[in-house]
Amino acid sequence: MARLLIIGCGGVAQVAISKCCQNSDVFEEIMIASRTVSKCEAMKEKLQDKTKTVIKTAQIDADDVEALTKLIKEYAPDAVLNVALPYQDLTIMDACLAAGVDYIDTANYEPEDTDDPQWRAIYEKRCKELGFSAYFDYSWQWAYEDKFKDAGLTALLGTGFDPGVTSVFAAYAKKHYFDEIHTIDILDCNGGDHGYPFATNFNPEINLREVSAPGSYMENGKWIEIPAMSIKREYDFDGVGMKDMYLLHHEEIEALGRNMPEVKRIRFFMTFGQSYLTHMNCLENVGMLSTTPINFNGQEIVPIQFLKALLPDPASLGPRTVGKTNIGCIFTGIKDGKERSIYIYNVCDHQECYKEVGSQAISYTTGVPAMIGAMMVVTGQWKQPGVFTTDEFDPDPYMEALNKWGLPWQVVENPVLVD
Ligand code: NDP
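Above: the input record for the complex with NDP. Below: its predicted structure, written as tokens.
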């Protein structure tokens, strides 16, 4: 029925590709296009005898709009799924516009070069005006609204788990459980253990930039920023147990804050073990998380990129990661004049994911919603001209698809709240 061009072939992409190949009724054909074509060919080799989906591969540098536009025009897909890096969001959106094709991604734009003076001037103005200082934000992609609308094309932003499913949970809670939502706490717990002293579960550069940024949350429409890791809570997660979690800045707070202005407070917490935090603090203190190039023995290197080269590839963690993830949202508010609170969450087992698709649960919980988001767009269930996040469409078909494609969820009434 549909033809999808998938850009990137890392940890998340490999799951999205496997799930598209399980869903051949929708994805009759896919093309895997990435910087290192050998990874695309290895995925094709692994899957082609087990699926009806026809798989093609291509080498592409997605920073090159002209080359990418040519590839999209030649392959003529129904949509492009960007599971490369957030650095490529804008160039891939530009190529989709030039080729007249819908766009889907899992993470909002951030620049690779945070010292670029043009970007920096806009960033510093935004920090002052909005009050949060993370490098990533939606403004760059929301600025494409008119271009996508005028072209009659859909851009679906952030269809991973968080952001992605968490915002669908918010739309579902609003539709079925509340007249008014007052607070949303998004809780991301990874109870998995990969046995390494230090490794990240998705791209190390993007992950470490995210978690080392100051934390922030939204209260009454305003951002409140706090030093990184300075708000800590404990929570007893179903399937995992008691964990320490820390308040982080996260992109769905921005989208939910804009699209559900009636919500009084939106926060995001992620669990971290002490060993992870000690390693991260040490790396930060010695300058290894810096995005500013330094000269080393006559060669320019970016410290965080060098660190990425030293750390385990997240796509290789699958066989050794055991334990579970639990990701979801606690909502409080009013229904029929009475106070109500619910918790919607998914529990996912690292080893079950590995058995099914050869990946750990963080790649799995992102790659499955990436496939589902692409399915929503190519089947026309979530197709409208403009730029959207996942809280802006009917959540029901997406929620149904989560149950069907490996991320079953549950709703618990009166959960323990986070103070
Ligand atoms: P990886 O680093 O494992 O994979 C990235 C892939 O993109 C690699 O195959 C890489 O190629 C390719 N790539 C990078 N630059 C280019 C380029 N210029 N042109 C073409 N291909 C390129 O990352 P992950 O799979 O861990 O993450 C993928 C995305 O998922 C990221 O945007 C991340 O932020 C997002 N994510 C979202 C989550 C959510 O819940 N919403 C959670 C986790 C991740 P090469 O093989 O040559 O390096």
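Notes for the reader.
The longest helix spans residues 361-378.
Residues 126 and 408 are 38 Å apart (CA to CA).
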